[in-house]
Amino acid sequence: MNAPASRSRFREAEKRRDSDHVSFLRHKGFRWLWIALLLSGASALGYALIDQQPRPNGGTWYGYTLGTIGLGLILWLTMLGVRKRRINPGAWSLKAWTSAHVYLGLSLVVVGTLHTGFQIGWNVHTLAYVLMLLVIATGIYGVVVYAVLPARMSDNRREMTRAQMLDALTALDRQLESAAQPLARDEADLVLAALKQSPFAGGLLARLTGRYPGCATARARKGMAGDSEAEQRVRALLEKRLAQLGQLREALRIRAALEVWLFLHVPLTMALIAALTAHVISVFYYW
Amino acid sequence: MTFLIRTLDITASGREIRRERPSPAPTLTVGRAAENDIHLADLAVEQHHILIDALPDGMVSVTALGTLGFGLDGAVVTEGTIDPRTGGEIALGSARLVVTREGEQIAVTIRQVAEDEGKHDALRGFALASVLPSKRAMSWALAGAILLMLLMVPVASHLLRTPAKPDPTGKTPGVVLMDSAWTSGELSLKHHSLENNCESCHVNAFESVQDETCLSCHKDTGDHAPMGRLAKGMPALSAGDAIQWKIGESLGKEGPLGCVSCHSEHEGPVRTASGNEAFCSNCHDSLDTRLTDTQLANAHDFGKAHPQFRPLYFASFGAAKPVRAAPGTVPVERSGLKFPHDVHMNARGGAARMAVSLKQYGKPLECADCHVLTADRISFKEVNMEQSCEACHSLVSGRIAGGGFTKLRHGDLKHLAEDLAKISTGPRPALAPGRQRPGQLGSASPYRADFGRPVRAYIGISNALSTGGVCTECHLPTTGPSGQADLMPVNFPDRFLSSGYFNHEAHKKQECTDCHAATTSKAASDLLMPDLKSCRTCHLGASAVKTKKIVPSDCAMCHAYHVPSGQWQQKGPAPHYRPPPLPVATPPPAKVAQMRK
Question: How far is A255 from chain B, CA to nearest CA, in Å?
Fold first, then answer.
């Protein structure tokens, strides 16, 4: 085989390998990490070396330059939401885009902070800055949980799909219903409450912490104190139901931890763009 | 242990049909094939799908016979164990086999379930979105609130307001709502009262703060130099600054020589700092290369590069205006006075003896006997003849009958002439003792008058004004426009070093003579202003190392940018604007001006 053909095959293979198995963080040998570091380093170096009179702030020529870069970056980073919904071929793969999104987003900490000239106050300008930092912080959290949590999620599933978790609950419920037939009114009501409660009951806090103080199954298990055969059986079934609910709730907890950042990241980004608009307009309105 | 197989069916009318049959064998096979113990007519079930086995310990094991698994309590497995006391559910296709213990038998209850239609919807419950408002709604709410409160409200109230006149007292509150959220920092101390009235400076939308607005309050502020010369003297801007100003100026900003270019506000509640050495040397270290006709020498550091002082002085008698000493020359001052400092300063000389004998002094003369600090403790009051000289240089002209003295008034030749004339009309001693005749008026009589020509008065004033006369003890004789005897007017500039600023109070630990060579000065023509060298014994440039003796001194210690102005001070009362100095006026020839330090 001649050399060019081999090289081209190697390139093909590399491309496939890259698109298949390399995380967006390591994309193209950390290309965007280096670009982001270069941007941050150049910004910091310029800040240190350029004499900004009377003092460094957003209003010097260097400040305006950093501000313009920052604004452009923020708007471009926001476009990831548009890009990821468009399935299209080309050199700008979604993975490259995501990699750039993460690293350039991080470099905004440097660019944005230098743009402030370390002048912080209770005003729309600092609001924009703080919103930017919050968006970046939630983004960092998102990257971390995406790296850590899927493995835990998989462990928790124990080869059950989400549908199977629900099926298992349904199966237990059917057994509970027939097993509870001999029970007295009070105990039957306990079982009924447990069966009626949706497995997804509980708010944001319950999901994030995994604590469900209002769990009817736990209450029923506690109230099932008798020694009759029926009660023993229902108790055993309630315990199985609790265990199954535990697995499901752990799945919910991990899922919530995995998703909650986006519920901050996206609205905060939109708030940031609004605050940036107010920031830019107000600065020139009261020039 | 045996099995009891129970089948539950629902008829079309909804009635439940229940069939039971015992199975004596300890195992059960389940599948689609007819020979199975439990036969399920469902294509999703294998011909021989599972084997249910009652174990000796009372448990039931379930094993898949083929490769296809089965559902056990929701999970798909290929083998599993059920404790019949708590029970378990096996799922095969649409059939559900519930295994429970009923007395000594193990009951297997078979029922058909409908496929769960809502299962897919139920899976949505796993997503966090099911317990949170949508991201889109939150985005709109947050962004909308910010845009409304921090942009639309201030802009609308600014556009709809009735513009008010700027109020320097700062008592007028601003009418634009929510614009305090736009401030980029607190105002300086002097402007703090304007904190709630943004539009007092930011008058029009998208227009930078204009000089005109600043000057509407700061009327007294003078220019550093005419605008054209300032622009010419400025060094070239850096590329970045040049671009910024080009853009800024095209949008109506007032260039690098506008007020706000140096006086940047919103830097916190601080006193506006003076320009540092670099601020001045930026232009002044090579000013002559750009402003080729300037008379100012280059300067950038008081200790290293600062031109020699060029005090103002009157170079000729009676000149209309003072001139600046040329660099490198020894000025000869023509103030019109005779005053040898050394005679007065000599502690053993005649002046000292006379001072010792006078109650007013009681000891040899000191500088402060004549030169008194002004109230601001910075400069000196004018030396006043009556207070500072007259104790020795007496103008007493006679005795008054009731005790006391008459004296000649100082300061105006007209007064002098009148006073001298009075001497001539007063009682005079008789030339020779004579016998008085009856009827003749005696010299003690009040009815005496000299009706002769006032020749002696003329002689008196002429004598006083000519060399050797009482006036020429201190003044120089001259003749007036019509040839009459006159005195040279006394001329002193208001300030000798008019472009710098010197605080005498700050130097009170020094002796006057440390800087002013008064003890050796023999004539009033000596200009006793200290030179650069004497200042540099203590004061060096801003970059000098501070020691017990050396005071690092930046330009602002002696100079101010805006003229006229006083010295910029770090502490103390702030207003450093002073009214412009009185124009240096030449007194009328007959009027002897007072000295002023």
Answer: 7
Closest chain B residue to A239 measured between Cα atoms? B86
Q: How many CB pairs under 8 A join A and B?
A: 187
- Asked, for residue B81, whether it belongs to a domain, the answer is yes
Q: What confidence score (pLDDT) does residue B570 get?
A: 53
Cβ <8 Å between A285 and B182: yes
User: Same structural domain for residues A150 and A110?
Assistant: yes
Q: Residue B417: how many CA atoms within 13 Å on its side-chain side?
A: 13
Residues A31 and A119 reside in one and the same domain:
yes
Domain that holds residue A70: 25-157+271-285
Residue A11 lies in a domain: no
Q: Would you give the DSSP letter of residue A54?
A: S
Amino acid letter, residue B417: A
Would you say residue A103 has pLDDT above 90? yes
Q: In the predicted model, what is the mean pLDDT of residues B229-244? A: 89
Q: Do B73 and A171 make contact, defined as CB atoms within 8 angstroms?
A: yes
In a domain, B24, yes or no: yes
- Chain B residues whose CB is inside 8 A of the A203 CB are 131
Into how many domains does chain A fold?
A: 2
**Are A194 and A219 contacting, i.e. CB atoms less than 8 angstroms apart?**
yes
Q: Are residues A52 and A141 in the same domain?
A: yes
Residues of A in contact with B243 (CB under 8 A): 61
Residue of B563, B529, B557 lying closest to B544 (CA atoms): B557
Which of B216, B243, B272 represents a domain boundary (last residue)? Answer: B272
Least confident of A48-62, A232-246, B310-324: A48-62
Report, in angstroms and rounded to the nearest whole number, the Rg of chain A calculated over CA atoms: 28
What whole-number distance in Å separates Cα of residue B406 and Cα of residue B393?
15
Look at residue B73 and tell me if it is in a domain.
Answer: yes
Domain that holds residue B181: 147-272
- Residues of B in Cβ contact (< 8 Å) with A168: 73-75
Q: What CATH number corresponds to the domain at position B33?
A: 2.60.200.20
- Written as one string, the DSSP assignment of B269-295 is S-PPPPP-HHHHHHHHTSHHHHSTT--
Is the pLDDT at B585 greater than 50? The verdict is no
Look at residue A1 and tell me if it is in a domain: no
Q: Report the pLDDT value the prediction gives residue B591, as an integer from 0 to 100.
A: 40
Nearest to A287 among B141, B183, B206 (CB): B206
A140-171: per-residue pLDDT in tens?
Answer: 999 999 989 999 988 888 878 888 888 888 88
Q: Where residue B198 falls among pLDDT bands split at 50, 70, 90?
A: confident
Inform me whether the C-beta atom of residue B235 falls under 8 Å from chain A C-beta atoms.
no
Q: Are residues B162 and B206 in the same domain?
A: yes
Does residue B193 form part of some domain? yes
* A231 is a domain residue: yes
Q: How remote is the C-alpha of B581 from its chain's centroid?
A: 26
Domain match, A209 and A75 both = no
**Residue pLDDT, tens place only, A195-215:** 999 889 888 999 999 999 999
Nearest to B58 by CA among B92, B97, B103, B96: B103
Query: Which of B100, B115, B130 finishes a domain?
Result: B115
The beta strands (E) that lie in A190-276 are given as none
Q: B472 in contact with A at a CB cutoff of 8 Å?
A: no
Question: Is A233 contained in some domain?
Answer: yes
Verify that A185 and A124 share a domain, yes or no.
no
B147–A contact, CB cutoff 8 A: yes
Whether B93 and B151 share a structural domain: no
Residue B85's SS3 state is coil
Least reliable range by pLDDT among A240-249, B222-231, B359-368, B438-447: B438-447
How many other C-beta atoms can be found within 10 angstroms of the C-beta atom of residue A191?
Answer: 26
Q: Are residues A54 and A148 in the same domain?
A: yes
Cα distances from A140 to residues A25, A135, B536, in angstroms, run: 12, 9, 60
Q: What is the pTM of this model?
A: 0.76
- Once rounded to an integer, what is the mean pLDDT over residues A248-254? 93
B201 to chain A: closest CA residue:
A286
Look at chain B and report how many structural domains it folds into. 3
Task: Band the pLDDT of B446: cuts 50, 70, 90.
Answer: very low
Using CB atoms, which residue from A162, A259, A283 is nearest to B123?
A162
